[in-house]
Write a structure and sequence with these properties.
Elements lengths: L1 H10 L1 H7 L2 H25 L5 E2 L2 E2 H14 L14 H7 L12 H30 L8 H27 L8 H14 L11 H8 L8 H8 L4 H30 L8
Antiparallel strand pairs: 1-2
Length: 268
């Protein structure tokens, strides 16, 4: 019972910071609305003079772009304002408290990430419902397609969790890495198809991204949703996503053991 209570408290750490700051929630709603409107307008404008580009119709492109904006809310909470990022904990020396709590640091991190994703899911589902009702995004072609998309999205978020964990674990080995973190996050968004579908990039870029886990986080689920990846090919993509989950889980577990030996208290 105590473990469940500790887990619940850890999971609600960052969401509570948002819920207790109404202006921040208003800002999130405004920014999400502006992003959806601008992205939908941009892609409709790009397709004004053409019917199909890179194998995508206008409706598919708009749906993909808007869904990418909504999916970004799943892990886009403002941890920095609450001084709850690993980078800040390392800088101020408060990371040591992760190793003094009843929960192991890796479990605390996982529970906190779960709470963030559930909170972000509420935003994403609300935005999806509004966009679907307004005709901004198209519904999936079939119930089977929707089911495969949900499974792929779940695996994609699992991969994303380990990718973000790997970036945070980097903080244990580099004391000043703000710029490196920004570069890596930009690369993750670019290679996962957040900014634009990967099919618009050169062939060498697509080939390179195929050897990295980033496109498994978002590009694959959204490609299934818009019909770019057929149901007959979805099984192979799901297997690749699951393989990345296993590989990254083993890697981050190994890094956690090494990181524990490097914990120091500095700064405040």
């Amino acid at each position: 019972m105590a473990a469940v209570l500790h887990g619940w408290r850890a999971a609600r750490v960052t969401p509570l910071g948002e819920l207790h700051t109404p202006p921040r929630m208003t800002a999130v709603l405004l920014r999400l609305t502006v992003q959806v409107v601008l992205v939908a307008s941009l892609w409709r404008g790009l397709y004004a003079q053409t019917g199909t580009t890179a194998g995508l119709s206008r409706d598919q492109a708009v749906t993909y772009a808007v869904m990418a904006v909504l999916a970004s809310r799943l892990r886009e909470l403002d941890q920095y304002a609450g001084r709850d990022t690993v980078l800040q904990h390392m800088h101020f020396g408060t990371i040591v408290y992760w190793y003094l709590r009843p929960l192991p640091p890796q479990r605390y991190y996982a529970l906190r990430a779960l709470g963030e994703q559930l909170y972000g899911l509420a935003w994403a589902l609300g935005g999806y419902a509004v966009c679907l009702a307004a005709g901004v995004v198209e519904p999936p072609e079939s119930a089977a397609m929707a089911g495969v998309f949900v499974l792929s999205m779940l695996l994609g978020q699992w991969v994303l969790y380990y990718v973000m964990l790997t970036l945070d674990q980097l903080c244990f080995f580099t004391l000043r890495n703000n710029s490196a973190m920004l570069i890596l996050i930009f690369a993750q968004n670019l290679l996962s198809g957040v900014y634009a579908p990967l099919w618009f990039f050169p062939d060498w870029f697509i080939t390179l991204s195929g050897f990295l886990p980033f496109q498994a986080t978002l590009s694959v689920p959204l490609s299934i949703y818009v019909g770019r990846i057929e149901l007959s090919d979805a099984g192979a993509q799901l297997a690749i996503q699951a393989a990345w989950v296993v590989v990254l889980a083993l890697f981050t577990r190994w890094v956690w053991r090494r990181a524990a030996r490097r914990v120091i208290s500095q700064g405040g």
